[in-house]
Specification:
Layout: E1 2-8, E2 11-18, H1 20-36, H2 50-53, H3 59-81, E3 86-98, E4 102-111, H4 135-148, E5 151-154, E6 164-173, E7 176-189, H5 199-203, E8 211-217, E9 231-245, H6 251-256, H7 263-295, H8 304-324, H9 329-336, H10 340-367, H11 374-388, H12 399-428
Antiparallel strand pairs: 1-2, 2-4, 3-4, 5-9, 6-7, 6-9, 8-9
Main location: cytoplasm
Catalytic activity: [protein]-peptidylproline (omega=180) = [protein]-peptidylproline (omega=0)
Family: Belongs to the FKBP-type PPIase family. Tig subfamily.
Length: 429
């Protein structure tokens, strides 16, 4: 067997040649493997004599199967001895496959970029922030709860801010219907609907059944690109109007929500919940700030294939998230003024930093001798499966991929915990 190893920038490649004599055992193994699945009258499956069974297979079939077995076995042996790290699944390209001349194939993999961290401990000097809950945040949460317990009743008057309304509307630009800018009996609280500036002002003072035409110049910065910066002629009809009655924020209101005896208990619970959210947000900020300081001025050449894989993953996550929310992804793209290709290009620009962060975390884990235990990985797998709960008929999760994913999650968590401990120790010095 002749093996030539070569590294070219971001790729590692092995050219493997085995002669006909070396290939012969794999041909025998291929035949035995194929016989196991053969059904033959008068014999049990897998128990057919070889001299009878081999007549049912062409030489090409046996050679093809032998190449599959040989390349997999030899590739596994080569990779087991390799000291370089690579990403994903290496590729195998068969160049020649002949029973007498032998087998020639290329084993190819993309190398993980080398990350030289240097004296990264000197770089990190992040200061933790103490999360605090402001009075206005508590008030905002109380108002949200208050709105969830509102009572509605129909009224015979003109529409006012704070009313619940249903409107049918459409929008034209240059006499042409704007795609996505039409709805029937669209419900919202007047003044809180999130429409373009001036739209809801025009609904104030209308009565149920009344129609109205008005034109608005939409700001260029408006979130929906289909209407941003354009002059839109709106046609609106007020279909329904209800007065919204909000409960007073007193002890009885707190009791109506469940296990609270007073409004003070409710406020204390809200404060506790908001503080927990802020602590989690601060934890993420603190960790990313540490990582950013380590990455700063760190030169790492990111393979294009890694950037593309990360961009594709981000794109797919967004698509799934939009469709799980009950929206058509094509319609969502139209609303934000993006094409699939344009969105992927946006993700490509942000993918490099995410890939670099992943590589740095991997390098830190190696330097700090951090490796998840089998128990930690299995616990992560169990938790992720419970959260995912894929619908019946959905594509099954690859167990090897899922294990690798959980291994990286646990490893990264342990790396961040180690970084936090280092920062804390530096702060004491």
């Amino acid at each position: 067997m002749d093996i030539k190893r070569e590294i070219q920038k971001q790729n590692i490649e092995w050219r493997v040649e085995i002669n006909g004599i070396e290939l012969a055992p794999y041909c025998q193994m291929a035949l035995e493997t194929m016989i196991k699945d053969l059904e033959f009258p008068g014999f049990r499956k897998g128990k057919i004599p070889q001299n009878l069974a081999q007549n049912h297979f062409s030489e090409e079939q046996i050679i093809e199967q032998s190449a599959l077995l040989a390349t997999r076995k030899i590739a596994a042996d080569i990779l087991a001895q390799e000291i370089e790290e690579w990403m994903g699944q290496p590729e195998i390209e068969v160049l020649e496959n002949n029973k007498d001349k032998g087998l020639v194939f290329i084993l190819r993999a993309t190398l993980l970029p080398k990350v030289i961290l240097g004296d990264w401990r000197k770089k990190i000097n992040v200061k933790a922030q103490l999360p605090q809950v402001k009075d206005e945040e508590i008030t905002k949460s109380l108002n949200y709860l208050r709105a969830s317990r509102a009572v509605y009743r129909a009224v015979n008057r003109t529409a006012q801010k704070g009313d619940f309304v249903e409107v049918s509307f459409s929008g034209l630009a240059g006499g042409v219907q704007v795609e996505g800018l039409a709805s029937r009996r669209h419900p919202f609280i007047l003044g809180e609907g999130g429409f373009v500036e001036g739209f809801e002002d025009n609904i104030e003072g209308m009565r149920v059944g009344e129609d109205k035409l008005f034109t608005l110049k939409v700001d260029k910065s408006w979130k929906h690109k289909a209407v941003a910066g354009r002059e839109i002629e709106f046609s609106v009809k007020l279909d329904a109007l209800q007065e919204r009655l909000l409960p007073e924020i007193l002890d009885d209101f707190a009791k109506s929500l469940g296990a609270f005896k007073s409004i003070d208990e409710l406020k204390a619970s809200i404060t506790e919940g908001l503080l927990a959210e802020k602590k989690e947000a601060e934890k993420k900020r603190f960790r990313l700030a540490i990582l950013d300081q380590i990455i700063e001025n760190l030169s790492v050449e990111i393979p294009e294939v890694m950037r593309k894989q990360e961009a594709d993953r981000l794109y797919e996550d967004m698509r799934v998230g939009v469709e799980q929310g009950g929206y058509k992804f094509e319609g969502y793209l139209t609303q934000i003024g993006k094409t699939q290709e344009g969105l992927k290009e946006d993700f490509m620009r942000g993918a490099e930093k995410r890939v670099k962060a992943s590589l740095v975390l991997r390098a830190l884990a190696k330097e700090l001798a951090i490796e998840p235990t089998d128990e930690e990985i299995q616990q992560c797998i169990n938790e992720e499966l419970i959260k995912a709960r894929p619908p019946e008929g959905a594509q099954k999760i690859d167990p090897d991929e899922h294990k690798a994913y959980c291994r990286s999650i646990v490893r990264n968590e342990k790396v961040f915990e180690a970084l936090e401990a280092i920062v804390e120790q530096k702060a004491k010095v």
